[in-house]
Specification:
single chain; alpha+beta; 5-stranded mixed sheet; 19 helices; 5 strands; 9% strand
Length: 394
């Protein structure tokens, strides 16, 4: 629900709405089923994309989010052909492990600094999450335009309503082959664009690195990724950091806390915005009863990711143990608010309430734990129920 008078929420079948609509739109954003889901073909078919195009005002833009996952080279090509067949102009962008298909009846220009600054207040958090801080960073993610996309795709199969093959075939596709195929096709599209305009150089290097890594050529992958990172491509930097972090998690699992903390600190200095690093530091420090260090690290996490319920819960527990009851209450309240299905947060909030004699809140948390028992909260509910029973006996 929303109180903003500019917003109207319609609940129903979006595809059917496009068929029966009376209005036209400047922008249509489609964020639909994964293409390997049952019933997905109807949301990736030529007919559906035609409805997207038909719903636009002159100069309007349609965008389609496309997760790559395990759909494979053949199926990715069919989706791209089906989408771009509906538009006279288009572009393909790299997102965050996915791609964005953009179509219009008018040329799709680059974003300039003035446009970016004007739009940033409305989408700033979303852009920052994937490392876009400027118009240059945004434009770097443009893989190719319509001409290069169609050049690489060539003639071939499109998806149509009367042949719902997408979900059937993707279940039969070997996942490793699918990943290789996805990387090859995007690499080829990016290289076709790069051969015509050097502005596509950075994203082409990034997609080359992904393709090389998927076939096990680590040396080539690292070289291309390093060049992309040197050009300011944030996705390349984050991929490197994620691999470094993964290596540290193996150290954490081995129980060598000192070595893990040293490695995490190195990554944290290189990437202070990497919330997972600070969360891991906080958990290690908390395990070793270094409460103030744990709280300092977890405060960074909630500042970076204010919707991360497990981080708020850890902050609440550490604050409680440090006898900072005001911060503990704030953190427990926030944990329950942003993660209403997290058993640890509900149980922690209930236990904290009991410690302050607030039976009513504890009972409310227990009720919610019972309601979400399907999510695995039975252990937490039992512990809180026992504490409640003890409290009410007194």
């Amino acid at each position: 629900t929303t109180s903003d008078p500019r917003i109207t929420i319609l609940r129903g079948d979006g595809r059917a709405h496009l068929l029966t609509r009376r209005a036209s739109f400047d922008i249509v954003v489609a964020n639909t089923l994964h293409p390997w889901s049952l019933g997905a073909t109807g949301l990736y078919s030529r007919e559906y994309f035609g409805r997207l195009a038909g719903a636009l005002r002159p100069g309007g833009i349609a965008t389609q989010w496309l997760p790559l996952g395990v759909i494979g080279d053949e199926h990715l090509a069919a989706i791209l052909r089906s989408f771009y067949d509906a538009f006279s102009h288009g572009a393909l962008f790299w997102g965050a492990g996915n791609v964005m298909l953009v179509g219009s009846d008018s040329p799709i220009g680059e974003v300039d600094n003035e446009q970016f600054e004007a739009l940033a207040p409305f989408v700033d958090d979303a852009l920052k999450r994937i490392g876009i801080h400027s118009a240059t960073a945004f434009n770097q993610r443009r893989i190719a335009d319509l001409a290069e996309i169609k050049q690489v795709l060539g003639e071939g199969e499109m998806l149509t309503d009367d042949r719902p093959v997408l979900e059937a075939r993707t279940f039969q596709t070997d996942h490793a082959i699918a990943r290789d195929g996805e990387n090859r096709l995007l690499r080829d599209i990016a290289n076709a664009a790069r051969s015509k305009n050097s502005k596509h150089e950075t994203v082409a290097l990034w997609l080359e690195s992904r393709e090389a890594r998927s076939r096990g050529d680590v040396e080539s992958a690292d070289r291309s990724e390093r060049l992309a990172e040197m050009s300011g491509f944030e996705a390349a930097r984050r991929a490197r950091l994620q691999r470094e972090y993964k290596a540290v998690t193996e150290i954490i699992e081995s129980g060598n806390d000192a070595e893990a903390l040293a490695a995490l600190a190195r990554i944290g200095r290189d990437a202070p915005e990497f919330a997972d690093v600070w969360f891991s530091i906080a958990k290690i420090e908390h395990k070793n009863k270094k409460l103030e260090r744990a709280r300092a690290a977890i405060e960074r996490v909630v500042a970076l990711e204010p919707m991360r319920g497990e981080a708020w819960n850890l902050l609440a527990v550490a604050s409680w143990q440090a006898k900072d009851l005001e911060r503990a209450k704030q953190a427990f309240d926030h944990a329950v608010k942003v993660a209403p299905f997290l058993p640890e947060a509900l149980a922690g909030a209930g236990g904290f309430a009991l410690s302050r004699g607030d039976v009513k809140t504890a009972e409310a948390m227990l009720k919610r734990l019972d309601e979400i028992a399907v999510y695995g909260s039975l252990r937490e509910a039992s512990a809180l129920r026992e504490r409640l029973a003890e409290m009410t006996k007194r």
